[in-house]
UniProtKB/TrEMBL annotation, chain A:
GO molecular function: asparaginyl-tRNA synthase (glutamine-hydrolyzing) activity; ATP binding; glutaminyl-tRNA synthase (glutamine-hydrolyzing) activity; transferase activity
Protein name: Aspartyl/glutamyl-tRNA(Asn/Gln) amidotransferase subunit C
EC number: 6.3.5.-
UniProt keywords, alphabetically: ATP-binding, Ligase, Nucleotide-binding, Protein biosynthesis, Transferase
UniProt entry tagged with the keyword Ligase: yes
Membrane-spanning residues: none
Enzyme class: ligase
Record text on subunit structure and interactions: Heterotrimer of A, B and C subunits.
UniProtKB/TrEMBL annotation, chain B:
Keywords: ATP-binding, Ligase, Nucleotide-binding, Protein biosynthesis, Transferase
Domain Amidase: 35-479
Single annotated GO MF: glutaminyl-tRNA synthase (glutamine-hydrolyzing) activity
Bilayer-crossing regions: none
Protein name: Glutamyl-tRNA(Gln) amidotransferase subunit A
Record's catalysed reaction(s): L-glutamyl-tRNA(Gln) + L-glutamine + ATP + H2O = L-glutaminyl-tRNA(Gln) + L-glutamate + ADP + phosphate + H(+)
Subunit relationships: Heterotrimer of A, B and C subunits.
Recorded family membership: Belongs to the amidase family. GatA subfamily.
InterPro entries: Amidase (IPR000120), Amidase_CS (IPR020556), Amidase_dom (IPR023631), AS_sf (IPR036928), GatA (IPR004412)
Keyword Transferase: yes
EC numbers, comma separated: 6.3.5.7
Any one Gene Ontology cellular component term annotated for this protein: glutamyl-tRNA(Gln) amidotransferase complex
Enzyme class: ligase
Length: 94, 498
């Protein structure tokens, strides 16, 4: 039995508006992928530390020194909308 | 169907020569960077309508870089072997003032405000940066069919895919539209298209090459690496881009050897131990691929290498670990595309949250949405331990398998992909497409260097790739082992009849 995923909840968390067709299709396809992924339950992982990346590095520190960032015009060049040197967005607070 | 022709190097047209050959001619003054760049532009114009490797290119900008290279050389200030060589970049690597689209509608109008570290280093090496190469959207795919721009075609058979996600980078080198290119590899995205297109593709050790300025897909797996015609060229290009960068906190501070000098040292195959992981030759492998790789193994044995069968018992879980971790990281990385500061913004949203939902729905293609949904799911409360945490633990077991093998052998030898390039449209089911990556994913999970090089052709004329997987930061040894095969064969000298 393919795993059922609550596609509405997940789409809500992911902030993506899905069409009814996408919901149906993704639910089915991801159910198949999850069935495959369930193989991982066969592995004995007791006592195994999780591995987040392959580097023998933990914390990487840098001196806390101010450095120039991107110039304002470079930042605004890719902004969908801006005004008076600021990125504009739809109203957030009434 | 293309027929292969074997072109002796001295007679080969400029666009199909190697960095090493061209750089020697530039040094001797037999060739100018402008002449070379014009030849590459001409070739690109001629074959691009069929190959479709590029999202965009800027001829005037390339010619200006080439002219600057010629001025440097005339003044005795040439910068090294890459000076004046046209090198293409996958369209996920930032070049200041050039488009950067990730082959996504989301970034259709984005222009890079800065250079990636690799870009900066190629500029410092005098390379002529040439073109923005097509990929599967946000590097998610194995065929370039997920590109919002176009599907790149395999230069060996235009009905077939070039592989992916760095399909444009691989096809451009195979078709002579660039002398070399850079791609990125998260689960095989350099090596798999290199195998499909009959070129050399190298994924460096995780942390060897800075990811600063690379559009992130899965940050614990992504690495930038070269596509070239020869192993020597891969060494030259790696030399230019490798090394510590404080702007990438996962960049590893290690001494970078002289890779080309390492190649020149007389290799002693009789001292090499190569491991053949038995799990990589199981069911599902194409007979012609298997036979070609067996012949390569026999070649090494005949050279005096010790061939050892090894076991990587967790291989069968690699794909599952990868699809949990890569999609989880992607769902987090791609959260930045919200229509606010840059990227696509939907019109007519009722409020700011609606703006996020609509901008992301319109900006992302189907595969990207599918992976964000899967990644969000495996990270969501109630599922995190069962999927994400468990996958991270199995990742350690996968890595331990490799390290156990390296106690016995210097490198592993495997096919790059279970089968040759498939026809455009042939793999509609996502799971079937994901299975293309089964031999390449392990090196990403364990952070190991791995290279694909041509090791034959199918009866139908499609290239077959041989993969060698090396020890952590063992690129020099890996390149030497690869070159021993290459110099005794001429697969890499064949060019597609376009």
């Amino acid at each position: 039995m393919p795993e059922e995923i609550d596609i509405d909840r997940v789409a809500q968390l992911a902030r993506i508006a899905l069409t009814p067709e996408e919901k149906e299709k993704f639910s089915r396809q991801l159910g198949d992928v999850l069935t495959h992924i369930h193989q991982l339950e066969q592995v004995d992982v007791s006592g195994v530390e999780p591995m987040s990346h392959a580097q023998p590095l933990a914390n990487v520190w840098q001196a806390d020194e101010p450095r120039p960032g991107l110039p304002l015009e470079d930042v605004l060049r890719n902004a969908p909308a801006h005004r008076s040197g600021m990125i504009s967005v739809p109203k957030i607070i009434d | 169907m293309s027929t292969a022709t074997s072109a002796p190097s001295a007679l080969a047209p400029l666009h199909s020569q190697t960095i090493a050959e061209l750089s020697a001619r530039l040094v001797r003054g037999e060739l100018s960077a402008v002449e070379l760049t014009k030849a590459v532009i001409e070739r690109t114009r001629a074959v691009e309508p069929q190959v479709k490797a590029f999202n965009s290119f800027d001829e005037a900008d390339a010619l200006a870089q080439a002219a600057a290279s010629d001025v440097r050389r005339a003044a005795g200030e040439a910068l090294g072997p890459l000076d004046g060589i046209p090198i293409g970049l996958k369209d996920v690597i930032a070049v200041r003032d050039q488009p950067l689209t990730a082959s996504s509608r989301m970034l259709a109008n984005f222009v890079s405000p800065y250079d990636a570290t690799v870009t900066e280093r190629l500029k410092n090496a005098g390379a002529v940066l040439w073109g923005r190469l097509n990929l599967d959207e946000f590097a998610m795919g194995s065929s370039t069919e997920n590109s919002a721009t176009q599907t790149t075609r395999n230069p060996w058979d235009l009905a077939c895919v070039p592989g992916g996600s760095s399909g444009g980078s691989a096809a451009a080198v195979a078709a002579g539209q660039a002398i070399a290119t850079l791609g990125s590899d998260t689960g095989g995205s350099i090596r798999q298209p290199a195998a499909f297109c009959g070129v050399v593709g190298l994924k460096p050790s995780y942390g060897l090459v800075s990811r600063y300025g690379l559009i992130a897909f899965a940050s614990s797996l992504d690495q930038i690496g070269p596509f070239t015609r020869t192993v020597e060229d891969a060494a030259l290009l790696l030399q230019a881009i490798a090394g510590h960068d404080a702007r990438d906190s996962t960049s590893f501070n290690t001494q970078i050897p002289d890779y080309r000098a390492a190649l020149a040292q007389a290799g002693k195959p009789s001292a090499w131990k190569l491991g053949v992981p038995k799990e990589y030759f199981g069911e599902g492998i194409d007979a012609e691929v298997s036979a070609a790789v067996e012949r390569a193994i026999e070649f090494y044995r005949a050279q005096g290498c010790e061939i050892v069968e090894v076991s990587l018992p967790h291989t069968r879980y690699c794909l599952d670990v990868y699809y949990v971790l890569a999609t989880a990281e992607a769902s987090s990385n791609l959260a930045r595309y919200d229509g606010i500061r840059y990227g696509h913004r939907a019109q007519g949203a009722s409020d700011i949250v609606d703006l996020y939902f609509k901008s992301r729905a319109e900006g992302f293609g189907e595969e990207v949405k599918r992976r964000i949904i899967l990644g969000t799911y495996v990270l969501s409360s109630g599922y995190y331990d069962a999927y994400y945490l468990r996958a991270q633990k199995v990742r350690r077991l996968v890595t331990q398998d490799f390290l156990n093998a390296y106690a016995k052998v210097d490198a592993l030898i495997t096919p790059t992909v279970p089968a040759p390039a498939f026809k455009v449209g042939a793999k509609a089911d996502p799971l079937a497409l994901y299975l293309c990556d089964i031999y390449t994913i392990g090196a990403n999970l364990a952070g190991l260097p791995a290279i694909s090089l041509p090791c034959g052709f199918t009866a139908g004329g499609l290239p077959i790739g041989l993969q060698l997987i090396g020890q952590p930061f063992g690129e020099a040894a890996l390149l030497r082992i690869a070159q021993a095969y290459e110099t005794a064969h001429d697969w890499h000298r064949r060019v597609p009849a376009l």
